C-alpha cells in the first residue's frame, strides 16, 4: 500500500534548524556566597562557532538530537506539609503557594504526588475505613478534608490542572500478615482484591472533590521494612498483584490511569523492570517505573546508570523520579549549600538518563523537620518556623527552580554534553521553541565555558558552587 503523499513529504523533512548566530540568551544564576538566587545575571550574544581547543571548557548542545518529553517537575503534598501550611497566616499561605506553583512569581511546579492514607510524614497512622471492613463500606476521606485537600486544591488553582499521582505506604493492618501498618509485613492473599478496590475508592473520592488523578504507584518502597508504614512486595509479588488484581481493577473501574511500578531506589530497579516488564500480562498495565535516590544509604555513590539501563532495555516504558529528600534534619544546616547541589546533580543525571518526571518529597516541613510520627525528620526545600511564622527558603528550593521554572511540560530533552567533569549540564526545548540549558559548577573556582549550540557559540562565566539556566 502506498504512503499518502503528505506522509512522504513529512518523513523527508530535515530536522528543524536552530541557529543562534547573531541572537542573544538570558542567564539566570544561583551561587553560594552571593545574593544571587534565581537572579537574572546577564545577557550573552552568540556568534559563529568553530573547532574548540582542548584547553577550552565547553558545553555542547545539539538541537537536532532530541529525546524524552517532560511530564513535569514537582513535589509531594503530604499530611506533614499540609499541617504546617495550615499554621501560616493567609498572606504567608499565598506567598508559599505562589513560591512553588506560580510560573510568574515562583518556580512553576507542574507535578504533584500525595499519600494514600498515612505515611511517616503524618501526625499518626490512619486509614479511610474502620479496621476489619474488607468490603470498604465505611470508606471516606474526611481526614484529608481538614488539611491535605485544601492545600492540594490551592496548588491546583495556581498551577493549573497538573498531573497528580497517589502512592500507598501500607494497606490497613488487618489486611497484612504482621497485623500492623508499620514494620513491613505483606499483603495477605485474601485481601488482594479489597486492597485493589481501595485505590479505586480513593481516586474516585479525590475526583469527586474536584481533584483529577493522573496516576498511582503500586507501593512506596516495596523492599524496605521501615519503622513507619511499609509493606513488602518482591518483584514477583508486585508483578502478580498488578497482573491479577490492581491492573484489571483500575482499568475496569477508572479507565486510563497511569500505573507506576517499583517506586524505590535505583539499586534494584533493573531486576524489578526485568520481572514485571518481561511479563506481557503484567506489563500491559504498567505505564512505567518510579525510583528514589536513597541507594546512597549504603555509603556508595548514586547509581544514575541504572536509570539509563532501564530506559535502554524498555524504551516503551516511562521513568519518573518519585521521591528524594535530604535526610537527618539539622536546623543549623538550612543553608548548607551541598544540599542544593545534591538536587542539581541528581536532576541533571536523571533527565540525561531518560527520566520524564521528577518529584521531590515533602514540599514543606516545620522547624523540626516534621511533623513525623516516628521521628524520621528530614529537610524540605522550604521550612516554616511555626513559632515566628517565618518561611525559610533553602538552597534546594532554588536549585530545583532552575529546572522547574524554565523547563515546562512537553519540553523535549536535547543532546547536551560537557568537556570537563567540574561541570554538569542538561538541555530541553520547550513547546514554544525556546531552548533551556542548565549548567552546574560544583567546583571551588569560577569557570568560563563555551556554550556551543549547533553552529553558534557564546562564552559564559559561572561562579564557584553555582547553577545557571540559559534561555535562548
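Sequence proposed for the structure above (472 residues):
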Amino acid at each position: 500500500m502506498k504512503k499518502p503523499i503528505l506522509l512522504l513529504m513529512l518523513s523527508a523533512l530535515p530536522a528543524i534548524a536552530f541557529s543562534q548566530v547573531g541572537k542573544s540568551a538570558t542567564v539566570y544564576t544561583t551561587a553560594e556566597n552571593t545574593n544571587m538566587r534565581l537572579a537574572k545575571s546577564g545577557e550573552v550574544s552568540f556568534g559563529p562557532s568553530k573547532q574548540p581547543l582542548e584547553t577550552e571548557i565547553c558545553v555542547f548542545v545539539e538541537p537536532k538530537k532530541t529525546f524524552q518529553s517532560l511530564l513535569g517537575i514537582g513535589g509531594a503534598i503530604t499530611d506533614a506539609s499540609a499541617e504546617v501550611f495550615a499554621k501560616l497566616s493567609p498572606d504567608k499561605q499565598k506567598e508559599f503557594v505562589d513560591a512553588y506553583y506560580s510560573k510568574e512569581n515562583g518556580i512553576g511546579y507542574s507535578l504533584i504526588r500525595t499519600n494514600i492514607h498515612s505515611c511517616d510524614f503524618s501526625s499518626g497512622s490512619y486509614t479511610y475505613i474502620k479496621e476489619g471492613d474488607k468490603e470498604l463500606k465505611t470508606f471516606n476521606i474526611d481526614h484529608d478534608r481538614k488539611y491535605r485537600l485544601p492545600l492540594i486544591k490551592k496548588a491546583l488553582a495556581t498551577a493549573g490542572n497538573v498531573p497528580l499521582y497517589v502512592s500507598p505506604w501500607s494497606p490497613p493492618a488487618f489486611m497484612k500478615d504482621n497485623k500492623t501498618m508499620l514494620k513491613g509485613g505483606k499483603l495477605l492473599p485474601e485481601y488482594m482484591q479489597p486492597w485493589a478496590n481501595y485505590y479505586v475508592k480513593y481516586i474516585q473520592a479525590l475526583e469527586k472533590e474536584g481533584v483529577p488523578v493522573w496516576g498511582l504507584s503500586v507501593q512506596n518502597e516495596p523492599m524496605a521494612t521501615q519503622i513507619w508504614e511499609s509493606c513488602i512486595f518482591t518483584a514477583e509479588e508486585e508483578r502478580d498483584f498488578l497482573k491479577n488484581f490492581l491492573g484489571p481493577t483500575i482499568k475496569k473501574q477508572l479507565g486510563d490511569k497511569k500505573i507506576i511500578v517499583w517506586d524505590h531506589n535505583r539499586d534494584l530497579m533493573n531486576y524489578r523492570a526485568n520481572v514485571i516488564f518481561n511479563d506481557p500480562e503484567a506489563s500491559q498495565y504498567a505505564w512505567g517505573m518510579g525510583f528514589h535516590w536513597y541507594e546512597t544509604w549504603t555509603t556508595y555513590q548514586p547509581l544514575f546508570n541504572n536509570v539509563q539501563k532501564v530506559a535502554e532495555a524498555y524504551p516503551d516504558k516511562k521513568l519518573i523520579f518519585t521521591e528524594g529528600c535530604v535526610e537527618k534534619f539539622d536546623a543549623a544546616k538550612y543553608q548548607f549549600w551541598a544540599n542544593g547541589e545534591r538536587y542539581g546533580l541528581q536532576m541533571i543525571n536523571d533527565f540525561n538518563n531518560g527520566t520524564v518526571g521528577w518529584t521531590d518529597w515533602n514540599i514543606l516541613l516545620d522547624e523540626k523537620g516534621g511533623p513525623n510520627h516516628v521521628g524520621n525528620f528530614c529537610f524540605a526545600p522550604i521550612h516554616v518556623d511555626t513559632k515566628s511564622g517565618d518561611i525559610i527558603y533553602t538552597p534546594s528550593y532554588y536549585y530545583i527552580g532552575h529546572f522547574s521554572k524554565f523547563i515546562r511540560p512537553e519540553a523535549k530533552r536535547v543532546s547536551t554534553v560537557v568537556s570537563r567533569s567540574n561541570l554538569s549540564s542538561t538541555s530541553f526545548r520547550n513547546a514554544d521553541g525556546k531552548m533551556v540549558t542548565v549548567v552546574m559548577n560544583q567546583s571551588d573556582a569560577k569557570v568560563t565555558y563555551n556554550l556551543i549550540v549547533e553552529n553558534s557559540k557564546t562564552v559564559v562565566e559561572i561562579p564557584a558552587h553555582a547553577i545557571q539556566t540559559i534561555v535562548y
